[in-house]
Amino acid sequence: MYFSKFLARLFFILLLTFISAAVFAQTNKDLLLKNWQKARSEKGYRSDTANVILLNRLSDQYLYNHTDSALYFAKQALQLAEFQKFVLGQAMSWNSIGKGYYVQGDYTTSLDASAKLINISRRINYKAGIGEAYQIIALVYLAQDKNDNAIADFTRALKIFTRLNDQAKAGKVYFDLGICYDESGRPEKAFHYLSKAVEIANSIGDKELLSMTLNRMGETYFHLKNYKKALVYYQQVIASKFTSNWEMDFAYSGMAQTYYELGAFDKAIANAQKSLTLSKKVNSAADVLRALKILSDSYAAVKDYKHAYSYQSWLKKSNDSVFNKEKEKEINYLHLKRQQADNIRLENEIKAKEQAIAFSKRLLLFRNLVALVTIIFFILIIRNNRRTTALNKLLKEQNSDIESQKEEISSQKEALDRLNNTKDQLFSVISHDLRSPFTAILQTLDLIRSGDIPAEQEPVVLENFYQQVNLVGLMVNNLLFWANSQQSGIKSNLIVLNLATAVNEIVSVSSFLAKHKNINLHHHYDDDKWVFADLDHVKIIVQNLIGNAIKFTPPGGSIEVYYTEDENNHIVHVKDDGVGISPEKMAKLFKVTGREISAYGTNNEGGAGIGLALIKQFVDANDGKLEVQSTPGAGSEFSVYFKKA
User: Fold this and answer.
1) How far is 117 from 442, CA to CA, in rounded Å?
2) Would you say 95 and 57 are in contact if contact means Cβ atoms under 8 Å apart?
3) Up-side HSE of residue 224: CA atoms within 13 Å toward CB?
4) Contact (Cβ atoms closer than 8 angstroms) between residue 494 and residue 538
5) Distance (Å, whole) CA 580 – CA 631
6) What pLDDT is stored for residue 388 in this prediction?
7) How far is Cα 177 from Cα 192, in angstroms, rounded to an integer?
8) What is the DSSP string of 526-591?
9) How buried is residue 505: exposed, middle or buried, by Cβ count under 10 Å (0-12/13-18/19+)?
10) Between 498 and 408, where is the model more confident?
């Protein structure tokens, strides 16, 4: 009798303990909310940095069950931090905003927030913020099923949190890594990281992390078809009194799919119904689909086709919605890649700034040493009664230095003028000649994205798109090579190469442009032509010559590429029957660049006005020779001499 009373009392105490712990999170949330409401009514609310921290803690409390409220508090925190110029608070607020939008599935906005977080954190050397930014980016990768990318960023975050001895954050990263390895079919590694997460969750008393990890262990066993073991872990989560609606939803969904595989369809239906209710409550589209699929299949298995059909129809509607979200995921992934490129660029900029600061420090030290030596020198002059003589001598030296500096400044000014002239020509070409092809490219992209192109017209549109891109690529390559040659001169890497093979590659690419203008492009060769030249230079020379021939040859015309040779050279000829070159422009050929020499083609094709000048420089750099014969209205022939190998 006494023992029975003791057991009853013990049970009552344990029950009270569980209930108290279950309401602790809600109590903590309510307490934080009251503290914020009280602080907001006080006079110094906007200037107190503690309120930024309080708002971010509130955001964390509302993150999974009321994400809209979490984002509201995070944005309030950001406004306060910006008003206070509290940079650490700004980083904390961007972290809360990034997590909130990730939970909502708005990955683009989440990535923008994480980019701001990582930039601010690097600026103030806030290591935890950098780790949290990597974690958010990795979570977006995980949502895009890019597991290897996610693992790389999770590993970076884990190293940071481990160095900071932040067990709570490290535990969550261990959990995330477990998901990555489970989804990529590596269960042994998944269990390794999940076990680490369980160990940390138990040591710091993080019940939410423990529930999440147990659920994922159950899912991993389910993937291994160890259904009994999976049920054990799901049931542990459901039996816990500290589990959020998210994890309860996942556990019931896992139970349902497991019972279905075991053939216990009634239990599968019961658990799937519970999962469906919770998944709608927490707005989890994935679990809604899983629950609907299990319900449809289970009712069909017990021959209740009415319910099976009902849930199947619901499933189809939900799948259509998810399909649209999958398209959005593809766009988000492209944004993620672009953001990753921006992060790499920012990292390089930071390294460059750090190097500049280090150089400035060394320069300052050097200047201080020079100043110290100068002081000692003056003291010695005073002691030896040679101050006047030394000062006069120093004055003469300074005057000499000034003259040298004037000469150096003059030389630098001339170099700067040349660079400015190159820059002005580049900007002129970019603003005038690249605008039209880029506009055409954007119009083609808009047409493709709209999905309004009939299937039979797709090859034509894509071919036109390729031609525009090829044209822009040629112009940009010419611009870059020309600009580089203006600054540092042309450098050659002369090797033995087959001229006919190199030319044939260019002819193959250019045939698309020729075909588009209905021009016959013929390449005549019957054997190898071995020469000693720079391969890249050869390709640029031939590409520009053929490109110009296509540009100035009218539709229906022809272009012939053939070879001759003399004792020391192989000679490649590019001959067309186009509009030819006027005597006025022949006199300026190879001497000027830009608009003065440029002309529009027979289809109004634009040009940079630097192609022939670039060809001449490259021919000279390869110890070759360039000859031109042209008759206005009858066509032109360019002949390039290359040394035989």
Assistant:
1) 32
2) no
3) 17
4) no
5) 5
6) 78
7) 9
8) SS--EEEE-HHHHHHHHHHHHHHHHHTS-TT-EEEEEEEE-SSEEEEEEEE-SS---HHHHHHTTT
9) middle
10) 498
Distance (Å, whole) CA 67 – CA 64:
6
Rounded-to-integer distance, Cα 149 and Cα 315, Å: 31
Hey, what are 503's tokens? 């030319």
- pLDDT at position 262 is 93
**DSSP calls for 246-283:** HHHHHHHHHHHHHHHHHT-HHHHHHHHHHHHHHHHHHT
Task: Fill in the amino acid letter for 233.
Answer: Y
Extract the tokens encoding 404. 């040298």
Task: Specify the residue for token string 């969550």.
Answer: 172
* Pair 156, 131: CB distance under 8 Å: yes
Q: Taking residues 494-517, what's their average pLDDT?
A: 89
For residues 493, 497, 500, 502, the Cα torsion angle rounded to the nearest 10 degrees is -50
The sheet with strand 635-643 has its strands ordered as: 520-523, 558-565, 569-576, 635-643, 625-631
Close Cβ partners of 331 (under 8 Å, ≥ 6 residues apart):
108
Give the number of C-alpha atoms closer than 13 A to the C-alpha of residue 394, restricted to the C-beta side.
10
Q: Kindly report the pTM of this predicted structure.
A: 0.47
Per-residue pLDDT, averaged over 229-249, amounts to 86
> Helix count (H) and strand count (E) of the chain?
22, 7
